[in-house]
């Protein structure tokens, strides 16, 4: 827990929010675990007020859940919830790929290509210490395509799903073959974007997110049988 100790600073709320979120993403707080406001405040060595604010924000993000008995627990993914969210992502991000193919400048395309080059380097030297870096790079790839779509409404709707999307990425299995599967999809998507082929860019993005959905459902099935 020492890694999550709150430092003295101007915004205890932000620090509490980020610390709790990191504890969830890193598995220190697991799906279904109950959250105690007073316990976190004691561990962070701050008052309960900023912790309470952080918990409310994380509820809005979907990472914490208030039960019928007013207990706060860590979000526990279900197949149905993942299906709903990834179906939304398929619709939004395939359209983003189409719009980015149409609207992105050569300079913006270079930014996407730089992310892919950095991802490839990390996969070549892959070990467990690089998992977080690769997740971050994969997230940046998708975010750039959303940003370069030039559709603010689409970006806002995608942003509403971003925290849970990152949560799902954090529970994915990142072995070398899985990394290559994701990377090859990203390469193919970028290939069509660079060729300005809107239809194929959109279809490949749709297929890529569908593949991620299948993989996550398989992981959940395995976990449920252990």
From TrEMBL:
CDD domains: WHTH_GntR. Gene3D superfamilies: GntR ligand-binding domain-like, Winged helix-like DNA-binding domain superfamily/Winged helix DNA-binding domain. SMART domains: FCD, HTH_GNTR. Keywords: Coiled coil, DNA-binding, Transcription, Transcription regulation. Residues 10-77 form the HTH gntR-type domain. PROSITE patterns: HTH_GNTR. The keyword Iron does not apply. The keyword Secreted does not apply. Pfam families: FCD, GntR. It comes from the Bacteria. Residues 102-129 form a coiled coil. PANTHER family: REGULATORY PROTEIN GNTR HTH (PTHR43537:SF47), TRANSCRIPTIONAL REGULATOR, GNTR FAMILY (PTHR43537). This is HTH-type transcriptional regulator YdhC. The lineage of its organism: Bacteria, Bacillati, Bacillota, Clostridia, Eubacteriales. The gene is ydhC.
